């Protein structure tokens, strides 16, 4: 399903299953916080202002510093490279970031622009080599596949893919939201193992 919709394929061992999108996000944020602190870096969540509000609530629960990137009508309420340039020009030292992205912008139902996304990611990686990208793909199946795949193709570059976690809601795909089922797709072995280690600690090996 994920490969058919998004044009990106993952091996079975690169998929981590979850009891829902929100628990998956919570685990990612917790692992990001812990791994950043091990490197003596201050963890900070970056997110476009018009994003899934639950992410903000979960980040507060995990004691993360939040920094919204204000979106504007000029750029159709989506992330723009100028916003990241402005932020990183004054970003505090010894800080690393998790950048949360909804490819199909929620709640405005507008797409990220592939060219602007590529510019934004280049800026982010230039300024923060430890950055983690949490890409929320939950609503991608509601859009034309060709358009989504053109956007998702930006993440295909190995130097970008190494920083990515992709979130998919299996319960929404199956139109059974009450079943609470989701998956994370991650090619980076270090991040994947950190997430799995966290899951084993809190759930004795059961899917989180």
Q: Can you describe what's shown?
A:
- By secondary structure, this protein is α/β, with parallel strands linked by helices.
- α2 (21-38) packs across α9.
- The protein is globular, with a radius of gyration of 16 Å.
- α3 links the parallel β2 and β3 (65-69).
- It has helices at residues 2-6, 21-38, 53-61, 81-89, 114-127, 145-152, 158-161, 170-173, 189-203, and strands at residues 15-18, 42-48, 65-69, 95-102, 132-136, 164-169, 182-185.
- 38% of the residues are buried.
- It is 41% helix and 19% strand.
- A 7-stranded mixed beta sheet has the order 1-7-6-5-4-2-3, sandwiched between helices.
- The longest helix is centred in the first third of the chain and has 18 residues, at 21-38.
